[in-house]
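Quick board copy: two proteins, each given as sequence then tokens.
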Amino acid sequence: MSEPKPAEINDEIDLRELFLTLWRGKYVIFLISVMAIAFSSIYLRTSERKYSVRAVFKPVVEASGGPNLSGLSGLASFAGISMPTSNSSDFTTYQKLIFSEEVAEKVFTNRELVLKIFRGEWNSDTGSFVAPVSGRLGEMKQLVKSVLTGFEKGKYIPPNPKRLSMLMAAILNVSVDNSTGFLSITAETSSPDMIIELISNATQETDDLLKERFFVSAEDTLEFYYQKLLTSRSPEHREALAKLISAEDQKLMLASKSSNFVAEPLTMPSVSLYPTSPKSSLVLALGFVLGIFLGAAIVLVRHAIAKPRAT
């Protein structure tokens, strides 16, 4: 008879032993979980409560009785003229222009609003903006960042239109509903009144800027159309030019009489009744789960260290 083979080493995890190890360390896991929940509670008590702000805008629609320009694009191109800018393209430009430095420069003239936005940098004693005090923790973070990345802290730049433009792009979110075409501007902030004022100023200045640009180009455009009308001999071309002039005149009338040229508020800006950040239930649940995992990891590490000693 052949001799029995030596027992093979079992490298698989023994689930029963793992469970017993965790069960023996249940008090450690429980204690770490309670500490994690306590830290989560402290975070919730000390963190800023942020509210959701939402403003909805719709495009300013021209009167339905205006001239129908559909089908005239090819004819206008053949005549050597360009179609007037459509309201939809103006609305697209409006969305891209809200965060521009040009708009921020106009908003920046509202000194009261600027002081609200950069209130942490305003020194009432000197009547000027100063670099905010970072504190010991902030200095440590900056030191670690400079060691890891090699970038030193830049020189303090007082609030200016460029900083305001970057700030608006960071805190304001713009989206368009494909089904309705409405423009939504949302933000999550601890100062909803200030954000509402910022949205109102930025959107109005954007609309005024587009209106100013249109007034500058409208006169030259109409003059160009009239010159083409005088030299044109084809009845089709003259009809196309007449409709283009009518459309441009109607747009000029809209810009002269209406307070809103491209977009107008659909509803009043709304603020959530309750804070939307931080989410208490999510933070506490995440703290509890992380506490369990951390406690289990500590128990398993202690067991792995103690096992060779016992052997």
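And the next:
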Amino acid sequence: MDQSGIGYVQISTFSDDYNMLARLWDHYIQGLIDQEVPGLIIDMRANGGGNTSLMLDFLGYFFDEEIELYESSYYSNITGEFEKSGRPSKIIPGPLLYDGEIVVLVSPNCVSACEGFSYALQSTGRATVVGSYPTAGAFGDVGRGQYSLPGEINMQYPTGRPENNAGKLVIEGTGIIPDLVVPVTEEGVMGLSDTILDAAINSLLDKIS
């Protein structure tokens, strides 16, 4: 970006062709490493989510150890309680490691897997999250809540609640709250400037200086 030497990438979905996105991501990270880019801005402000496995694969390029993030719990009519699935979501280190500073940009249009991605980087202290508002807060597991209705209407709702190791509900209903909250300005609303990106650049430059 300009003369700063900072890297920038916008991830708009985790729903496209898995193999293609995985190869592009690997190529991009290799470029960051080869060019010794000291800091990276990941723009997630318009990411509607998608494949959780792909999201976790992307995260693996930023960590050198396995990390358990959360586990979905489902309500049991027999016990009357939420019971864990026994399949926690984990970050597995990838084939490459980018260890530079990271800033993640979010907005209410960051949904589902996008929120999981941002949560992982924020909760581990790996990145600073920047935005004017929290993310959507829609991270519950909808895999078992898919229904087809008359009139070619499809409906889904969450049936699983994501919990951390302490049993605390994460993301759902609250979203990812930015570490650095950027005030909304007239210039930003009118598209005359990108105040969130500007704040992210300044934050990242402070970290790498």
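Board note added afterward: The first strand starts at residue 7 and ends at 10.
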